[in-house]
Amino acid sequence: xxxxxxxxxxxxxxxxxxxxxxxxxxGRVELLADAVASSVDxxxxxxxxxxxxxxxxxxxxxVPTMRRALDDSGLRLSDVDGVAVTAGPGLAGALMVxxxxxxxxxxxxxxxxxxxxxxxxxxxxxxxxHGPLPERCLALLVSGGHSQLLLVEGxxxxxxxxxxTIDDAAGEAYDKVARLLELPYPGGxxxxxxxxxxxxxxxxxxxxxxGPRDSRHDFSFSGVKTAVARWVEQARREDRAVxxxxxxxxxxxAVADVLTAKAVRAAQDHEIxxxxxxxxxxxxxxxxxxxxxxxxxxxxxxxxxxxxxCTDNGAMIAALGAHVVxxxxxxxxxxxxxxxxxxx
Length: 344
Ligand code: KG4
Ligand code: ZN
Description:
The protein is an alpha/beta fold. The protein has helices spanning 40-43, 51-73, 92-109, 118-124, 126-130, 170-180, 188-196, 222-237, 244-269, 285-298, 307-310, 314-326; strands at 4-10, 15-23, 29-38, 82-88, 113-117, 137-142, 147-152, 159-164, 274-278, 301-303. Helix content is 44%, strand content 19%. α9 (244-269) runs parallel beside α10. 5'-O-[(R)-(carboxyoxy)(hydroxy)phosphoryl]adenosine is lined by residues 13, 143-145, 171, 174-175, 186-189, 192, 279-281, 283-284, 311-312. Zinc ion binds at residues 118, 122, 143, 145, 279, 312.
């Protein structure tokens, strides 16, 4: 197969991402550009993403972000051989901006369009950093919107969800706990920082869905969030100073413990020897340290893309598009629509 340049467009949440990759004749995918514009600052005072604000921000950022990706790569639009775009899951209005842009570029350039799944993109991005994935691997996706365990048998071919959260996503729990501790949004980075100086065993917060009769591969994070809220309320009622560092470290330990224990167990249940962790929460220092420790003990190879690639971006969509091209997947029609609830 001849070399191909694939453009990727991401707009499912609050990041406008445009990425460019090169697919070479041997099927390897190389990162050429990864431009991202975030509207996170505009959502901060609301403590979470406001869909209307996100959609408008995508509209404003799409063309400048495209220009930046082209400038960074030294390519021209006419070099592009295919356009991949996140078709879902995500916020309806936000997705529509990316899908409309991708359709316009594909039509104007007369190249194939590939509507792809955002969750698969979070897995595919790891090939930009660590090379081809083995035939079978397990992916733990943890972000503000998702907490899932996926069995991956070819990232462009077959992804099967074997577990997911039954309530809050892991990142959502971080954001809500940060809010009640009066820490800034998004909550992951400040909690991670405070946790460094706290004692992870100071408070024994609950580990959701880890009882003997509970679902083996599903998650629940609303219990730990409520437990933190109760603990903090009680301390405030009793006029005790809230030990923010200890609360953060203990909460972080509970989340990392459950995520890594369940990921390792799922890998063992499915006889899989490679685990990929991706999504914004993969940047968490305790999660990656504990995952490394437990994977090593279980003989599992751990792959975590660098934080910049873990959060939403266009390069992950371009990478997945390139894998679809390499697998000779079918292009999407120009009638492609956004699907907010797109399953894997
Ligand atoms: O993947 P992402 O950028 O966006 C989506 O939600 O799709 O993930 C954002 C989430 C937020 O909830 C944020 O609090 C969390 O990732 N996050 C972290 C860390 N950095 C970001 N959570 C824990 N520790 C971190 N260091
Ligand atoms: Zn995401």
